[in-house]
Amino acid sequence: MPARSGLVLAACALLVLAFAPAQYFGRQQDDLLYYLGARALASGRYCLETSPGCPPLAMINPGWPLMLAPLAWFTDRPAAYQAFAALVLALAPLATWAWLRSRFDETTALLGATLTASSPLLLGQAGVPMSEAPFLLVLIALVAAAQSGRAAAAGALGAALILLRTAGAAALPAAVVPFLITRRPSKAAAAALPPLAAYGLWSAWSWSHTRGVDKITLLTTTYRGGTLVKAAAVAAVNARYYAATWGACFLPARLADGALAFSIGAALAALAAAGLIRALRRRRDDPAAWALLGFVALHALWGWQYERYLLPLIPMLIWALAEGLGRAAKPALATLLALQLCAQTLPRLGRPSPYARPELERTYAWLAQRPRPALLASAENVRDGWYAGLPNVALPDAPDAEAFAAQLKRERVSYVLRQDALDVGLNADPWSSLRRGLERAYGSLDDTRLFRKVHEEPAERAEIYAPL
Predict the structure, then answer these.
(1) pTM over 0.85
(2) CA 102/CA 106 separation, integer angstroms
């Protein structure tokens, strides 16, 4: 490694570590679920210990908890998991550089690594025990393995992706299609069987414990009774959201929510699409192109929108963008890097995170003082119960207020938390049955025959109800 590259990559890793932890532990709830899953695996089971009866953790794939489980043998302190997650994420610029070197010259690879390290999408997850960081590393390794014709390695890495996140299925074309195009069916089978087996085993375990497969169930809620028109509408909403999210990386915070962010993101997406086409014309079996196509299809149809979904794709988006820019890649990437550093990264460096403390801190403090035993129900029940120090269950899905109250009574729920500012990743999807279900549940709480408001925190936009 050239000395210049070593210095730049070391600076990239230090930058990522400087932003950790970017959020308080449990803010996204999934990070808390991964932590609880690791503790459960370390004790020889895989269930949610904070809910009555320790229900199976079928909503969280076991790959990341399995990686975290060794920590649980030594400590229960969340800070250890945050530190480990920060170190894993700090490897992202190094992995990006190593892969881009196989595609471009050293300077372009370094620009790609630095763009990755300084991205607000990545820095916003620094020190957060989420699965996107290991997913990014395994995805790059899978593309590199397929690129070099190592089918068995690509298959094993595909299985690892599936066990990290079901979204790993979108990488299956990168592992399999190149071998099909080059008419190597035995290698295609070697690349396809491990991820298919991993998904089959995980689905069988989930079905045996819950009579459902979580992500399939969630997908059907988006398209229940749906049509091609609905799918097109979801794709349009998602395209606008992710274009604006990408474009906002290069603008000051005050402009990040406007039309300019979408315009920049759309222009970058068009250049990346041109690069994708150029790459496929040059080499029809390019694994990176097939990987990106797979994830574009996934995020076009998946009803949830979160910024962190783009994190594992940053290296491939930079690759496609550089392909589309051609000879202008180096000056254009350098310009984007300067914009990103000046508008987003450097203004945030050294400043306290806006998510350093729970948004419902006062609400949790009130709940923590309630007499025990008590059971809490809420939309983000694992996170809310963790900070309130209460066992917890999710809000039931019921057709009306009477059925909603009856289900809560059967579960012996003491308190129901309503958070009006909750972001469930469905704000851009007015067709979601889950979103409508949450609105219906919150509406049920207004029925004074069935519920009594016992506390509220107007500044936190939170209210607590007790079933009557």
Answers:
(1) yes
(2) 9
3-state secondary structure of 467: strand
Structure tokens at 446: 């207004």
Question: Phi/psi at 320 (nearest 5 deg)?
Answer: -65, -40
Contact 250, 343 (CB under 8 A): yes
- For residue 39, CA distances in Å to 32, 285, 300, 353 come to 11, 42, 34, 27
Strands 451-457 and 462-467: antiparallel
Q: What are 155's two structure tokens?
A: 């298959």
Question: Encoding tokens for residue 66?
Answer: 């399995």
Residue 390 CB: number of other CB atoms within 10 A?
24
341-369 mean pLDDT = 94
pLDDT tens per residue, range 158-192: 999 999 999 999 999 999 999 999 999 999 999 99
Q: Is residue 373 reached through a cis peptide bond, with omega within 30 degrees of 0 on the bond before it?
A: yes
Distance of alpha carbon 303 from alpha carbon 220, whole angstroms = 10
pLDDT, one tens digit per residue, over 300-345 is 988 888 999 999 999 999 999 999 999 999 999 999 999 999 999 9
Lowest mean pLDDT: which of 155-164, 226-235, 383-392? 226-235
